[in-house]
Structures are given as structure tokens and as C-alpha cells.
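Q: What does the assembly look like in three dimensions?
Context provided by user:
Components: two
Sequences:
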Amino acid sequence: MSPARTILIVGGITLAALGMLYGLHYAVFVEHQTLDRMGSSLTQAFVHAAERNPPSARDAVNAYASTKYDYVRQVDIHSHWIGLGMVLIVLGVAFEQVRFRGRSQIWIAVALLAGSFLFPLGVILQTVKHGAVFASALAIFGSATVTIALAAVVWGFWR
Amino acid sequence: MSTQLASPHIAASFAPMSARRLLIFGGIALIAGGMLFGDIFAVFILHQNGGQTGQALLAACEAASAGNSLAVKEIFQNVGSLLEDHGTKVDAHVHMTDAGYLALLLALLQPYVALPPKRRKLLAGLFVIGGLLLPVGIFLIHYVGLAYSPFVVIGWASVLADSAGALLIVVLLAEAYGLWRFRRRGSLGGELELPIDRTWERRALMAGGAALILLGFLYGAWYAGVDLYRHEARESQILKNMLDAAAAGQGGTVFEVASYGSLAAEKAVKIAAHSHVIEFGLLAMLLSFVQPYVYLSDRWKRGWVLTLLGGSIILPVFVLLEMNFGLVAGGIADVGGLFVIIALVGMLVGVLRYSGHLDASGATQ
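A: Here is the predicted structure of the complete assembly.
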């Protein structure tokens, strides 16, 4: 197996396993509690409205929005790591058909793996501090790296 | 009939009762099953569920407007149940198709997994079982609830789903260990590498699949950059407007509930278009490897390839157009999904014919 294929296949399996482990941990220890929190915040918001207490209702909506912000990104990291892992494995198996020289193939493989790891990592880091610039920049850098490397792969298949 | 069947190398790479054969059959069946479930869900449950959720939200606004906090709590229990019904069905669909993709991936990797054939076959069987039990468990969560459960928030259906998920992880780790052994010691013999050919079907599926994935990435980046934060802010604002109107006992909650429903639909179709175009791209690339085993004439094989790629474009594009053209676009999107399922079943029939022919000729020898 060429180095580029090894990077993609082993990296892809590791990423998929990481995504699954995260998903399992999340499903067992976090998800139900998060959904309960979201539901109770929204219920509280309406209860406060019924009690004619708009400021508390607004606070409850803010709490709901904050929990949902985290929930969306926590689910995203699970699906994106697994999805990107699968893309890497498929590309690894078919990489011989990508018409680039050995060194270029390795760089493309490294870019695909690095971007696939960093993009969801940036997304999950956004939950540590909402609106953090570094986390968003990491997610953008990761997704741009994957996209450019994938465009190179499509070009390589066509050549 | 395809001439590739004559190749002894291809036949040897698809040995009877091998791990690869089990994973290819199981994988295609899981993907077809997951997609069929998704199509049924989209046609018969999705819109009705959305309508019920909207009605419940409106009822909650009216109860809040009337100052009846007890009724609000009761209504939100119903909303929670509706959301769980929706969420578990989406999850069952996604997890079944994704387990199918992983099964096909593992089928491709078998030549590089340095484990004894019996162990590889056992792992393949466990993976297919886990891939089936995981979505079944997720589907049952809404119906089983916490009945007879010793846990506070986790029911028996969740336990089944989580155990199946853990089984999939264990199999993946074992396969990764096999790959690591291959790197150190080389192959233990068994499954051969897949034949490398550049037939029209393989090239069309490989290049078409990669292009679909790229398209999905670009659209996902666009969504994250332009829509995601705007949607999140809009959702909070709509809820606040809704609650202000309800607390003041004013009208206008109907408009806010309608805006909320419209926003939820916009988010759903955009995310669905992004995820489906990438998944179909991945599926096309995976199926390109299976083509040597599809025992059909070249005309039929090309027909299924075009049907699959056509459906893969129709579904996400018309899902997006649902916001402008409503149920007509939704119906066309469902037909696109059906195209993909039909093409998938057509290819599965070709693989079954191939294995039947291979086994029959093996038996006569």
C-alpha cells in the first residue's frame, strides 16, 4: 500500500472510530440531559409568558438558544467525523486512480486528513466559548483545506 | 452479458460465504432499507409531524395568552413527544444507511485486514447485525420510552441502540487492528485485491461521486457561512416575539408560529440537501467498486448508473426547491430518492445473479 493510501485509510478508520466513540459517549452521558434542558427551557419560557413575566420568558429563550447552539454542534461533530472518515477510506481505496505523482498524492492525503480532523474540532470548540474567533477560524481553515484537496482529487480522477 | 465474469481473478475476489460477500450484500441491503425508510418517512410522516408541532406551538401560545401555565406544561409534553418521534425516525434512517456505507467500505478493505478468514467473517456478520440493530433500537425509542427501565432517562430501546453502536465500534477497532497487522506482517492470505479496471460505469460513478461530494462540501460551507448563525438568531427572535405577544395577550402569535414553522422548514431542507448530496456521492463511489460483480449486460449496468446519478441530483435539488414550489417539488424529490433505491436494488440483483452463477459453476466443477 502506498503512503498516501495508508494515510487515507488508517486516518479514515481512526476518524470514523473517533466519531463513533464521541457519538456513543454523547448518546449515553450528554444527549438525553441536553434535550431535557432544551425542552424545559422552552416550557419555562411559555410558563413565564403565562405568568405575565416577559423578562424571565426572554431569559428562558436565551437559555434554550444557548443549549441548542451546543446541541447542534455536538451532533455535527459526530456526523462530520464519521462522514469525512468514510470519504477518506473510499478515496484511499481508489487513490491509485488519482493521476498525480507520489509526493503530490501524499500532500493531498495529508491535507484531506488534517482538514477532516480540524474542521469538526473547530466546530466543537465553538461550544467552549460561544462566538470564539479561534474556533471559527479553525473550522473555516479545516473545511477549506478539505474542499481544496477534494477538488484536486476530482481533477486527478478526470486526468 | 458482461464479459468480466470470465475473469478468474474477479471470481476469486468474491469467494462464497466470504467476509467481503457478506459485507457487500449486507451493506447494499442496509442502504436500500435505510433509504426506503427515509422515503416512507418523508411521504407519510414528516409533513404531518411538522403540522402537528406547529398546532401544538400555537396552542401553547394561546394557553400562555390566557395565563394558563398548567396547560402550557401539558402541551409541551406533547411537543416533546412529537419532536422525539421526528428525531428518532430521522436518526434511524441516517444510521441504517451509514452502517450500510461502512459495510461496503469494510468490504473494500478486506484484502488489507490481516486476520484469519473465520475471524474476518465473524466480524462481518457482527457488523451487519449491529448495523441492523442500531436503527431498530433508535426507531423503538419513541414507542418503548422508559417502560420497565431501571434508569432515569434511558429506556431499553436506547440500551439496545447504544449496545449495537458499541458493537460496531468494537468491530471497527478489530478491523483497524487487522490493518495494523497488515502493515507489520503483510497479508495472511484470503481475500484478493479488487480488480482495477477503467470501465465506463466505474469512471462515471467514481468521478460523478467525487463531484457530488465536492458540491455538497461547497454548499455546506455556504450554509455555515451565510445561513447558520442567521437562522439561530432568527429562531430566538421569533420565539421572543411570540412570547411577548402571548404575555401581552395580543394577537399576532399565529403569524409568529407560521414564521417559526417556515424557518424550521428552511433549515431542514438546506441541511437535508447538504447531507444527501454528499451521501449519494459517497454511495456512487462505493458502488463503483462493486461494478465488476454486477452480472448484467452493459446496457443495463449503464442504465442503473445513470438512474443512480440522476436520482442523486434530483433529490437534493428538489428538496431545496421545496421552499419555493412546496409539495410538488417535495414529490419530485421523493421520486429522485426512489430512483436511487431502484438503481441500488437493480445492482443488488446483478450481484446476486453473479454470486449465484459463480456458486453454480463452482458446484459443477
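Follow-up: Helices of chain A lie at 3-50, 54-94, 102-125, 133-158.
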